[in-house]
Design goal:
With 148 residues, the protein is mostly beta strands. The protein contains 1 helix and 8 strands, in the order ββαββββββ. It comes from Liquorilactobacillus aquaticus DSM 21051.
Length: 148
């Protein structure tokens, strides 16, 4: 267990349950740091506040979008790699549905910066056998996997 997050290893994968009011990204980062793992993950759950970013290539910057309320996390996919200080970096994309002012289902999706869990977060984390470092790519303007 890390904080109020529960975890269990089954069949070579970690199953994580992140508790209500916890920060999803911070909990995954703590988990990766504690167990010294890189890898990829998927998940579902619910949040009550999210910050989703859209990358603006011309500016080499992100535009943040904040949404609060009952947010159904219908998809979460991401990875954990290491920065140049060997610290875990969590990179995730997610989609959340919610009811808009007209009572219709609407969606917010993109690069996940933060998510506060509303009820629960259920994550399946598949570790890599090796570390996965990141490096800056001047063409992309962001840090990417260093594979060679």
């Amino acid at each position: 267990m890390v904080g109020t997050m529960e975890s269990k290893m089954m069949n070579g994968e970690y199953y994580l349950r992140i508790a209500k009011n916890e920060n999803l990204m911070a909990e995954i980062r703590k988990f990766a740091d504690r167990y010294h793992v890189c890898g990829h993950f998927t998940g579902i759950g619910a949040a009550n506040k999210v910050i989703i970013s859209t990358y603006i290539p011309e500016k080499h910057d992100f535009l943040d979008h904040t949404k609060e309320g009952m947010l159904e996390m219908f998809t979460l996919t991401g990875n954990v790699s290491l920065d140049d200080q060997n610290q875990p970096v969590v990179h995730a994309h997610a989609g959340f549905s919610y009811l808009n002012d007209k009572g219709d289902i609407a969606v917010i999706a993109g690069d996940l910066r933060e998510a506060t869990i509303g009820y629960t977060g259920e994550i399946v984390f598949t570790p890599t056998k090796e570390d996965l470092p990141r490096q800056f790519d001047p063409d992309a303007g962001i840090d990417v996997w260093k594979l060679n």
